[in-house]
Protein: Putative glucose-6-phosphate 1-epimerase
Organism: Inhella crocodyli
Amino acid sequence: MNALPPNEALVHLQSPDGSRATVLLHGGHLVSWIPAGGQEQLYLSPQSRFGAGASVRGGVPVIFPQFAEQGPGPRHGLARNRPWQVVQQDRGRDDALLVLRLQDDEATRAAWPHAFALELTVRLTAQQLDLELAVDNLGDQPFDFQAALHSYWRVDALTHTVVQGLQGCRYQDQVAGGAEGVQHSSRLELLGQGPIDRIVHEVPGGLGLTEMGPPPARRLALAFEGFEDAVVWNPGPQHGLSDLPADGWQHFVCLEAAQIQRRIHLPAGESWVARQSARCV
Ligand SMILES: O=P(O)(O)OC[C@H]1O[C@H](O)[C@H](O)[C@@H](O)[C@@H]1O
């Protein structure tokens, strides 16, 4: 399991068949997922910062209400830096479930002046992780937002890793100043020669992440529901990130379920829900 500082508030989940996950209350941040009989699936930087105000480098940061600097508020929004609360924790016959909630308070309203609640539901079965993000507008005015489940998938070697399922999709290449491109091949090979940072639009519901052997290939099947975009990000060897080891870039790829291009317009009193599932196959 990924190493965590001793004094962080965390919740451990374990399904009856032995899959496990760990979530930090800070950020409602999933930092570990180990399927039954399997290995850690999420990358968490050993140099990550933790605690009040910190953004954790790895796991699954919740991005809301803005992506990156595409708005006037804090980078990647305010959800990843706030304390969340447990509203439900259950174990069923073949699953484990956790629901966390973040509601607006004085600090969030200072950054973004809206009344809202986020609920993140984490559900584990033997080989599958389901994450659901729900946004409620609790105010009397509509608001617009972007969101993402910024998932850092652990890989042994980035350069042996391939993303499948984006064929024919348009993308915005953030390394090339936002230039538009089209993913022609069915396999996006992560060459690691430099950074990759793409916002891919209108992604089909199912994507694959495959690590080619040796050792034998490992494959994650990802399914998005309600998220229209995906982000593919790896900072490459010249990353300069102080919370990532020099060689840390080789051990993850972010393949994120996201809602970026078309901001969601949420009327007062309404809700929006989207999901990302990952299955070891
Ligand atoms: O360093 P962070 O604020 O966590 O952002 C990490 C990365 O997030 C996304 O994947 C963006 O597309 C990248 O441009 C960004 O570098």
Q: What stands out?
A: The pocket of 6-O-phosphono-alpha-D-glucopyranose is lined by residues 55, 68, 75-76, 174, 197, 231, 233, 254 (CB under 6 Å). The chain has one domain: 10-280. DSSP finds one helix and 20 strands in the chain.
